[in-house]
Amino acid sequence: MKKMIFFLMLPLVMLLSACDEGDIVEKTTAYKSGGYVVKMTGSIANMDTWPNGYDVVVAVFNEDKDADHYVSAKRIPTTYDGSAFVYHVSDVIGAYTSIRLCVVNNLHMPVMNVDTLYSVETSVVSGDTIYYDASGKDVAMFKAVTDMFEKESCTQCHVNSKAAGKLGLKAADAYAQLVNVTSNHYPNESDAVFFKRMVPGNADTSLLYKVLMVDTILTGYNHVSHIQTKKNEYLVRTLVRDWINNEK
């Protein structure tokens, strides 16, 4: 009788053991992409122009899955003096398609792409180390703003001081034509209150920021609609706002 009970129980024990292994132990397929080490040298200009919430980084991206957020990044300290900066990319779990020097916000989104250190499509690396000289690279926040003006096609209308709103937003002109300059537009003719285009430290009273937040009443053109069609309204608004509030 005891032998019969033993033989009846044995398959049940084996079945429970198999179920335990299959249901509880989670199987993962994590893997490392490449064994690269990035070694960067060379001074980078204007790293200290960015406020809290932004970082200059060497970042790893997988554009095949998400081009708008990095997979992993290593922050470059604002005290970086151009000596060797090392990033062990071999520690990154998962696939990646590029390694970039860029400025990112606290949502892990690049707001300024400075250079591509490595791309799976174009880069040929001898050995396991990617050597990169960053000398001459400029990450000034205002450069990111003027780059955004170009990218978002703002400079098609605001090409020079004789263009739309008598405001030029090309990199060579934008600062002088924005900062503490009174606009020639006002919300309605009855009160004739003129706004300054950009008031350092105060985005809420700056026309440049206002036109990105409200409709056509301020200037006669719907800038809100323009940036919404580009699907970049969050990045554009926050970059302009934070630049103004950070400017002294």
Protein model, in words:
- The chain is α/β, with parallel strands linked by helices and 248 residues long.
- It has 2 domains: 37-139, no CATH class; 142-246.
- Helix content is 27%, strand content 19%.
- It contains 7 helices and 9 strands, in the order αβββββββββαααααα.
- The strands form 3 sheets. The protein has a 4-stranded antiparallel sheet with strand order 4-3-6-7, with no helix packed on it. It has a 3-stranded mixed sheet with strand order 5-1-8, with no helix packed on it.
- A hairpin with a 4-residue loop joins β6 (98-105) and β7.
- α2 (141-151) runs antiparallel to α7 (233-246).
- The longest helix is centred in the first third of the chain and has 23 residues, at 2-24.
- It starts with a helix and ends with a helix.
- 29% of the residues are buried.
What would a concise description of this structure say?
The protein has 248 residues and is an alpha/beta fold. The protein has helices at residues 2-24, 141-151, 154-157, 174-178, 207-210, 223-229, 233-246, and strands at residues 37-41, 44-45, 54-61, 72-75, 85-88, 98-105, 110-119, 129-133, 137-138.
Key descriptive features of the protein:
248 residues; alpha/beta; three-stranded mixed sheet; 7 helices; disordered N terminus
